[in-house]
Design goal:
- The chain has 274 residues and is mostly beta strands.
- The protein has two domains: 200 residues, SH3 type barrels (Roll); 44 residues, no CATH class.
- The chain is built from two helices and 14 strands; from the N terminus they run ββββββββββββββαα.
- The chain has a six-stranded antiparallel sheet with strand order 9-14-10-11-12-13. The protein has a four-stranded antiparallel sheet with strand order 7-6-5-8, with no helix packed on it. A two-stranded antiparallel ribbon has the order 1-2.
- Strand 5 and strand 6 form a beta hairpin.
- The longest helix is centred in the C-terminal third of the chain and has 7 residues.
Length: 274
């Protein structure tokens, strides 16, 4: 996928950068069994209609596509690459050879239709797009769709163009560098997919105009100092000599209410030790 710049006919298209989706399939008639409509709250309460989440609302209608993120074994063939409006990465439509069924997964970069994707507990040959335990993946490999525990779904490294690196691997635990450069320690029994998530050029997209943000469901952001005192504590030109607070008058800077991250316990390691 390459970036394409539109011909500047208007001011909104002058600096606009889009991703060409010429390699994506538009045929959606093969598998439509689990495509469901998703109810949108639009940032308002269902009872009173008051705004409960700021800067949300509007947007075009979207159809939710269920993604297969579990670690159950499968042997499948990639049929086509598709677009998903609910995520930044692309998705693939796979056909399971064992169960004779269709399912969708997160697309891996440079993975073309017709390739084989497998998920297995024990693998001798690990290739691009294979999903297996970390103990079977060599150290230094790029991984994605990381699940912390054996039976849980993929939770980490799922956005466009992201990948993690296996820095160090022992018998029970392994250290993995996340896209945020944070290193976590997980069990070697955890599952991960070999490869980088698709659409790595998503960060270079330039919307070009405010209307594109409104189609994504993002409303304009208003500064608190530009409001009235009844709407925000910063309102009415009363911000001098006071710390920055939220609309509910709670401190909002310097990590005042920053939660401490819990350490990921290695259940498999503790079971072996005990």
């Amino acid at each position: 996928m390459n970036l394409q710049k539109s011909h500047p006919i208007t001011n909104g298209t002058r600096h606009q950068l889009n991703i060409s989706k010429n390699l994506l399939s538009k045929n959606n008639r093969i598998f439509r069994s689990n495509i469901k409509g998703l109810s949108r709250s639009l940032g308002r309460s269902s009872k009173t209609g008051h705004i409960t989440v700021w800067h949300k609302g509007g947007g075009v209608k979207r159809i939710f596509r269920k993604i297969y993120l579990s670690n159950d074994g499968y042997n499948s063939i990639v049929l086509m690459n598709l677009y998903d409006p609910f995520r930044s990465s692309f998705i693939t439509l796979n056909f399971d050879l064992d169960r004779c069924s269709f399912f969708r997964t997160l697309s891996i970069n440079t993975l073309s239709p017709g390739t084989l994707m497998c998920c297995n507990i024990e693998m001798k040959d690990v290739m691009l797009g294979y999903k297996t335990k970390i103990k079977n993946i060599p150290t230094g490999s790029s991984i994605s769709s990381l699940s912390i525990k054996n039976k849980e779904k993929s939770q980490y490294i799922r956005s466009a163009g992201t990948f993690g690196v296996i820095v160090q691997k022992g018998y029970f635990t392994a250290k993995i560098r996340l896209p945020s450069n944070k290193i976590i320690e997980v069990s070697t029994e955890s599952f991960a997919t070999v490869g980088v998530i698709s659409n790595p050029q998503h960060k270079f997209v330039c919307l070009g105009k405010a209307g594109r943000n409104r189609l994504l469901g993002k409303r304009p952001t208003t500064r608190g100092i530009a409001m009235n005192p009844c709407d925000h504590p910063h309102g009415g030109r009363t911000n001098g000599g006071k710390p920055s607070v939220t609309p509910w008058a709670l401190p909002t800077k310097a990590g005042y209410y920053k939660k401490k991250r819990k350490k990921i316990k290695n259940d498999y390691y503790f079971e072996k030790c005990t």
